[in-house]
Amino acid sequence: MKYISLISSVLIVSILIIATIYYQNREPLLSPEAEWEYQQQQSVTEIPEAEPLRGIYVNDQIGYSLQNDKLQITYDGGNEWEEVPVEKEYLFAGEYNGNQDELIEDSFLLTEQYATFLFDAETTRLIYSTDQGATWQESVITESKPAIRYRKVEFQSDTFWYAILSFDRTMSQEGAAVYISADQGNTWQPTNMPDTTRLVADGGFVDADTGFIAYGTINPEEPDMYVTNDGGESWQETTFEMPSKYDRVFVMPNAPYKEEDHLALIMEQGPNGDYYRDGLIRAKFISNDNGHTWEFVEEVEPEHEEQMG
Fold it and tell me: Do the beta carbons of residue 241 and residue 267 sit within 8 Å?
């Protein structure tokens, strides 16, 4: 009997000790309000640190990024970024969409003074900043909504901006238009155009009066370029004095540029070119009559071309 009593006492003491330890170590009871706040704190997940933006630079300091489906620009090598208020998809709208990892060539300008981006959203527009992205303005280049293929925006001065568009391609034919702005991109007016529907290859102005449009992107057999000397009111076909050894070799002229006291351009071999070094060799031509006739000067190695223009 005494043995049973002893065992019972030991069990009771053990239970009291275990209960005391559990009570001292258990989490305190919370009020409903405190319990809700505790659960909220537990459910908050740690936000991962944003991935640094990788810029695509036009020079050492000025560049842009398309990460996170946003267009952002920097003027200090990527330390600070300004978001451009335009949907990324609008920058690639049209028949030609680019690779969408980089902006379409010639569809934008980034300089110390201007940041301009051509885009297509119901109408073809330009969004631009004159204060490195602090503020932005938009203008309508054309109210129509064509399926844009070729696009280029450029300026020669504060009072001469231009945009070249090609659109609504059907096989090897398409429409094209040149638009001029004399008020820093605020308003745009169309010019007349050459009488051809071939595919636009390139174009540009060297000043407010003299501009060029080159045609032929599908199996061209000879250069086809038009010049205006009156700001697009009229256009004339240019003439190339091509050495016979280069017939059907150099066929696609790039937009001309000013060089000393004359104009110059680089001409490519075209999509099927295979003359020397797998078709990489180009040709340089110059004009002394404001772009109407062009004479061959020399072959140009690819590594030397960047020194020109």
Answer: no
Report the chain (309 residues): mean pLDDT per 10 consecutive residues: 54 56 52 60 56 90 96 96 97 93 96 96 94 96 90 93 95 95 95 96 97 94 97 98 93 96 95 77 97 97 62
Containing H/E element for 33?
helix 32-43
pTM of the model: 0.81
What are the CB-based long-range contacts (under 8 Å, 24+) for 133-137? 133/73, 133/75, 133/82, 133/83, 133/84, 134/82, 136/84, 136/85, 137/185, 137/186
CB neighbours of 93 closer than 8 A, spacing ≥ 6? Answer: 119, 120, 121, 148
R_g over Cα of the chain: 33
Spell out the SS3 assignment of 135-159.
CCEEEEEECCCCCEEEEEEEEEECC
